[in-house]
């Protein structure tokens, strides 16, 4: 798997998209593992050989890991693979010096998955329960304080998640394309879905190329834009794919409904209007309109 920012970010994102196209739960766990390995590489740290990793960083509804007296405490939500993984990079609020990443052995008895905290309509098999940390020793710190969000690769990983969304959307379209037949209305839906897929794919490819061309540059706006495009794609798929499929395909296809449910849950890692507002604020703060930037890049 190519590391991001090392010359083949586009290839990395294509692999993530391919996993998403096959199975979104698989892709969710694979994305977390590969993101963890990328973080460790960026910090100059080696992973534990043979270990399956995740990245657990959520701070939702007042929860989140805290680092006190050299140990990790607190509850972290959305810990995908909680019962399956060997290790996790846990992002814990530091003691006055910024967040810290801690490489945690999940076999430690002080790491406790909270049963009954993951009951979604989609992505159920991702096992993304809450996890309690009851004084787990922070024996393996990764990077300096503030490293998790301060490193260039933070948003490179965010682009990788968008690639998985793209793949999940493509998988749904794979399932419904045969239902179009010769009906002009269904063909119109298929044409719109194809266009949305191609546009998001092209934007992610261009963003990956820009990252590799200048890894030290700030690519936040570009990645946020690609993530917004992928989220819009998923909403388009959720709207048009069922209309293309019709009741017969929806009720008799062995996995279409599950794919749609998985995609609807997973894409909510994008925070909808909140993330769009943050993107809009960045665009408004620049001297050049987004359309001018695109045309200059084209020249």
Give a verbal description of the structure:
The chain is of the alpha+beta class and 299 residues long. It folds into 2 domains: 46-142, Beta Barrel (Butyryl-CoA Dehydrogenase, subunit A, domain 2); 148-294, Up-down Bundle (Butyryl-CoA Dehydrogenase, subunit A, domain 3), CATH 1.20.140.10. Helix content is 53%, strand content 15%. The chain is built from 9 helices and 8 strands. Strands 1, 2, 3, 4, 5, 6, 7 and 8 form an 8-stranded mixed β-sheet that branches. Strand 4 (87-93) and strand 5 form a beta hairpin. The longest helix has 33 residues, at 220-252. The chain is globular and about 65 Å long. It starts with 8 loop residues before the first helix and ends with a helix. Residues 294-299 have low confidence and may be disordered.
Brief summary of the model shown:
It comes from Pseudonocardia petroleophila. This protein has 299 residues and is an alpha+beta fold. The chain has helices at 9-22, 24-43, 147-150, 153-176, 184-213, 220-252, 256-266, 273-285, 290-298; strands spanning 53-56, 64-68, 71-79, 87-93, 100-105, 111-114, 129-137, 141-142.
- Number of domain units: 2
β-sheet strand percentage = 15-25%
Total of DSSP H or I helical runs spanning 4+ residues: 9
* Biggest sheet statistics: 8 strands, mixed
Q: What is the level 1 CATH name of the largest domain?
A: Mainly Alpha
User: How many strand segments?
Assistant: 8
Per CATH, which architecture of the largest domain? Up-down Bundle
Sequence stretches where pLDDT stays below 50 over 5 or more residues: 294-299
The residue-averaged pLDDT reads 94
Structural class: alpha+beta
Task: Provide the helix percentage.
Answer: 40-55%
């Amino acid at each position: 798997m190519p590391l991001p920012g090392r010359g083949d970010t586009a290839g990395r994102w294509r692999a993530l998209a391919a996993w998403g196209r096959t199975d979104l739960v698989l892709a969710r766990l694979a994305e977390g593992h590969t993101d963890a390995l990328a973080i460790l590489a960026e910090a100059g740290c080696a992973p534990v050989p043979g270990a399956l990793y995740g990245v657990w960083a959520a701070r939702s509804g007042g929860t989140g890991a805290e680092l006190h007296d050299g140990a990790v405490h607190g509850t972290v939500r959305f810990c995908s693979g909680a019962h399956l993984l060997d290790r996790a990079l846990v992002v814990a609020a530091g003691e006055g010096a910024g967040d810290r990443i801690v490489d945690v052995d999940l076999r430690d008895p002080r790491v406790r998955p909270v049963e009954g905290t993951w009951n979604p309509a989609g992505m159920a098999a991702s096992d993304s329960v809450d996890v309690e940390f009851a004084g787990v020793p922070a024996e393996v710190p990764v990077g300096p304080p503030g490293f998790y969000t301060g490193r260039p690769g933070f948003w490179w990983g965010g682009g990788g998640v968008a690639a998985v969304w793209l793949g999940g959307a493509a998988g749904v379209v794979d399932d419904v394309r045969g239902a179009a037949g010769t009906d002009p209305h269904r063909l119109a839906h298929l044409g719109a879905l194809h266009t949305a897929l191609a546009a998001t794919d092209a934007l992610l490819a261009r963003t990956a190329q820009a990252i590799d061309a200048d890894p030290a540059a700030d690519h936040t706006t570009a990645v946020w834009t690609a993530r917004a495009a992928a989220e819009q794609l998923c909403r388009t798929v959720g709207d048009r794919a069922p209309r293309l499929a019709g009741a017969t395909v929806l009720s008799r296809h062995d996995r279409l409904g599950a794919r749609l449910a998985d995609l609807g849950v997973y894409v909510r890692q994008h925070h909808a209007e909140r993330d769009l507002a943050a993107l809009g604020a960045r665009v408004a703060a620049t001297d050049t309109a987004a359309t001018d930037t695109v045309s200059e890049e084209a020249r």
